[in-house]
Amino acid sequence: MLETAETGDTIDRESYEQALPDLRVELINAQYELQHADFPVIVLIGADDRIAADDLIDTLNEWMDARYIDTRWFGRRSEEENERPRFWRYWRELPPRGRIGVFAGAWATNPITEQVFGKRDRGGFKRRLEHIRRFEQTLVDDGALLLKFWLHLPEKEHHKRAQAAEKHRHRHWKFDEEDWKIYKVLDKVLPLCEQLVHETSTACCPWQLVETTDARCRDLTVARRLLQAIRQRLDETPSGTSQAPAEPAELCCGPLDSVDLSSGLAYDTYKAELLRYQQKIHRRSLKAAQDGRTSILVFEGWDAAGKGGAIRRLTRAMSARNYQVVPIGVPTDEELSHQYLWRFWRKLPRAGKVMIFDRSWYGRVLVERVEGFASEDAWKRAYQEINDFESQLVEYGFNVQKFWLHIDRQEQLRRFKAREKTLYKKYKITDDDYRNRDKWDAYVCAVNEMVERTSCQRAPWHLIPATDKRFARVQIARIFSRSLKNDH
Amino acid sequence: MLETAETGDTIDRESYEQALPDLRVELINAQYELQHADFPVIVLIGADDRIAADDLIDTLNEWMDARYIDTRWFGRRSEEENERPRFWRYWRELPPRGRIGVFAGAWATNPITEQVFGKRDRGGFKRRLEHIRRFEQTLVDDGALLLKFWLHLPEKEHHKRAQAAEKHRHRHWKFDEEDWKIYKVLDKVLPLCEQLVHETSTACCPWQLVETTDARCRDLTVARRLLQAIRQRLDETPSGTSQAPAEPAELCCGPLDSVDLSSGLAYDTYKAELLRYQQKIHRRSLKAAQDGRTSILVFEGWDAAGKGGAIRRLTRAMSARNYQVVPIGVPTDEELSHQYLWRFWRKLPRAGKVMIFDRSWYGRVLVERVEGFASEDAWKRAYQEINDFESQLVEYGFNVQKFWLHIDRQEQLRRFKAREKTLYKKYKITDDDYRNRDKWDAYVCAVNEMVERTSCQRAPWHLIPATDKRFARVQIARIFSRSLKNDH
Questions:
Q1: CB under 8 Å to A289, separation ≥6 — which residues?
Q2: pLDDT digits (tens, 9 = 90+) for B176-189
Q3: pLDDT by residue (tens digit) across B79-121?
Q4: Does residue A15 sit within a domain?
Q5: Any B CB within 8 A of A17 CB
Q6: Which domain, by its residues, includes A459?
Q7: What residues of chain B lie within 8 A of the CB of A276, using their CB?
């Protein structure tokens, strides 16, 4: 596949210099228009020719306005990066809408270097290609313009260059240790490049192969294609995404129906049981912290179902050094200018912490779905995106537990009224809460579908009957305490 | 000093429960008003009683609206944190304006645990207290409401508690390994706490000592003081900060006068010299990357002085994996809601990188000063703040080099005109650029003062004559290449 890049094309200096001024003007104009567009441009540069990648990046920065390009090169993973799933580092650096992010190497070449210089097995490599495809799909679905260029130097040119570098070390000063290291295992590297390019060339984001033998031709080709792609995307009339609110609530049945809301617990039993589990949580969370095992707890539920109180019963059992509660509210504008999972990726904790999300990424398929804040396409896609996200956490050894606190409509009303009577709880009740009540049935559907589509053994949903808060708190403490014991 | 906290105050359950509802209402109201305020609240909790700190944090989260409090606990520094100056981790987590950040331990207790369990010498401890004072001063000067509570358990209570924990292990389950570890060296820890509290109790941010023997009293005291401080600050009428633009330009002399703008270089010499330094930079930057030595290059200069071209001559010599160019443009809203240095702290690179800032934190004392975007107080304070910032970088082993590219007013006009003729450079010239020209003299003053007040041997300003771009580029390459060699 790579040899299809070997066209042998060249461009003479004169044509090059003739073409340049116009190209540069157009590139810069495109960049300026892009600033007001609602999508980011992500340029992934993979290469079996490191020097070419370096030079190309310099050229792009020269030809375009460097102030609006973020170039990121990804090398050896740091300890902090090692404590999170592999794609955390890329999520962190994604460009916001309206900007260009150039990713050098990154998820294109790191799997290869790890495969060659590390100890990954063949199965692991395949699995990573799968992650790449899903990651790219997620970005593209969110509207990102993702362009992937693979810079390829034909094998015989690799040999020629290495020989020249050996002879005239002084003249070929850019050919450094790193290049020698790669050159020595070129016969292993090239087939892996081939495989990666082949298997991650999907319909939504194919690799564009560019031969690097002729630098002028290489730079012009990439710049022109980049320009063309941005231009085309800018000129597309924005598709009138219908953000219609969800259908009038269907009456639907599902997992929520089977929750026994009459469950309760006597006060004495509650006290004793809670203490028992809190002690276990205390001990086990210290052990987990030492062993670097991370837990992610997700709390969702009806307004006034008792999320806060249940969370505090857990945190009271732990040391502040080991947990963090993350309440999910209105996103900042930095967060709004990225794919919706970005804000959660950026918050992933270091190894050994317990991270408690008070509301979470499930907002996408709950409130955003019901209120019509997300298009139907977007929330329907979200189940798969969320499953991918969580499966990366789980594969990385995180303990993921999700709680839905369930009460019925009457109980909620009772609690709203009670809250309004308690001065320091009044703030918890707003008109929004009453409005949400009107959409109860639509929410029931959304919750049922959410649980059905995103609960799995390794990242399970626990439906907690919460009419009796004591019962709910003990259940949650018990489940969390057990999960701390079982996961490895 | 700590024993002044030992008041022996207690509060009975009845008075406590009577006081609570009003206090909670007022706390929540204050929190809601705070959301629209233009300052952050930073609550630093230091303690010689870890369990009390944990409990207090839980209580604050219960009494207030947990959605608007960010609690951070800082433990052992990670590898990424170790690659930056000590305060990087705190800067990263500072709350934006309108929010409350609760820092547990952090810069209050980490110096102590490192002193006791690490290998720091006495001099290092003193130095860190100095950094703490400056850091806090910077936050307060920026308008943050910084409240520092030291939770103190009298020594005899420490002993009583430890004895009880030994006897009734089951009942005292919160007293864990970590507490035993501290307890065993209590005689070393307490004097250090004493010293830290004493020496970091400054006029702007004194420690408030709180005895922890009685939990109700402890929680009420902290909550009341927190409320009072926020309330008081909210009720202050905002001081009408006069953002008057700078005085009509004085004619002032200074370092810029001595720059020889007639310096030039013949083309052949230029080619040869540049190549020579580029090769050195290539080699030395690889070595620096291996050794983990970080370089920070700052580029400032007149519009059209040739910053971009000079930067590219450096990046062409390096591998994309080792450098990053950071163009400083308009801040995001997350950035605007923090102290102005926050955005630079958050960008500090990992060990071994070369970070090139195309414009920088010096905007504060240049454009923000001249255009009146920063108040006179703010930019006058900035020299000291910047010096502190850079001295932390330098002390941490970073190589810091700052370049001012200098041309005169006629040369600038010539270049503007030339740029307007080159289609792909036209975008670089806007009306703003002409407007800035009118303030040339004011800028000259600002630059002179900046260089005089922020140049030092370890983070020097280099004034580069840039009438001849070739000369400037070679100078910069030479200086950078040497700095790569000399720094350790």
A1: A321, A322, A352, A353
A2: 888 999 999 999 99
A3: 778 888 889 999 989 999 999 999 998 999 888 988 888 766 6
A4: yes
A5: no
A6: 261-486
A7: none
